[in-house]
Design brief:
The protein is α/β, with parallel strands linked by helices and 244 residues long. It has a single domain (2-243), classed as 3-Layer(aba) Sandwich (Rossmann fold). The protein has 6 helices and 6 strands, in the order E-H-E-H-H-E-H-E-H-E-E-H. Strand 1 (2-7), helix 1 (15-29) and strand 2 form a beta-alpha-beta unit.
Length: 244
């Protein structure tokens, strides 16, 4: 397989960074080809703005989607965006590695979606969901949190993981990916704040890394999550069964 890790954490030695390194080593040992897109190391600009389009189709008003369509059609996307798209196109499996921040994805990753999932090129009004550009490819979110896993339940302090990741995972499905169930590493805390004693860190991290390797070892047989498709909606985008 061709595998792409998209890392969204500002510290390369963080546990998120370690999980990417562990995953890369594991897959390469199995004979797979691995690429890593470390967004912070690349100094990726997540902010969609007029300055990203020096050759504008409309100089009077900035309409992001129109400028994306124009740039894609004319082959003048920013080099960093074209680079990300080409890596996605090469990949059979894309793993997004990031911490849960404020019950969501980091702003860096949200902005990456805003800029890289280019309107008119990677999606259109009909090229979405189960007709999406990346159909046949798989994607997965691997996340970390300082809170223990027991907190991520209905009514818990952490909130339900499925709700936290719904927007990101549904966006991947929107782009045509088969979305695999997420992998979560809980109880990963920064220096000076932890749910475990300092002397338990190494043992805990070793266990989490082993869990990660075990997940990756079976990932080719993972069953994607189920989402509704075009045949399940009426012309207004509502469930057909609701109107039956």
């Amino acid at each position: 397989m061709n595998i792409l890790f998209v890392l969204a954490h500002p510290e390369p030695t963080s546990f998120n960074g370690q999980l990417v390194a562990t995953g890369k080593d594991y897959f390469e040992a199995q004979g797979h080809h691995v690429e890593v897109s470390d967004l912070y190391a690349l100094d990726f600009d997540p902010v969609e703005k007029a300055a990203n389009y020096p050759d504008r189709i409309n100089e009077e008003e900035f309409a992001p989607l129109a400028e994306q369509r124009h740039a894609y059609k004319e082959g003048i996307l920013a080099p960093e965006i074209q680079q990300q798209i080409e890596m996605l196109e090469r990949a059979d499996l894309v793993i997004f590695q990031f911490p849960i921040w404020w019950h969501s994805v980091p702003a860096m990753l949200k902005g990456w979606c805003d800029r890289v999932f280019v309107s008119g090129g990677l999606y259109t009004s009909k090229m979405r969901y189960d007709n999406g550009y990346f159909r046949g490819k798989r994607a997965m979110c691997s996340v970390t949190s300082g809170a223990p896993g027991e907190a991520f339940v209905a009514g818990g302090r952490g909130g339900e993981l499925d709700q936290i990741l719904w927007s990101m995972q549904f966006s991947l499905y929107y782009m045509g990916f088969d979305v695999l169930p997420p992998h979560a590493s809980f109880g990963v805390s920064g220096h000076g704040y932890s749910y475990v004693a300092d002397d338990a860190f190494e043992k805990q991290f070793a266990t989490l890394k082993q869990n990660w390797i075990e997940r990756l070892s079976s990932i080719q047989s993972d069953t994607p999550m189920t989402y509704p498709g075009w045949d399940d909606w009426d012309d207004l985008g509502q469930p057909k069964m609701a109107n039956a």
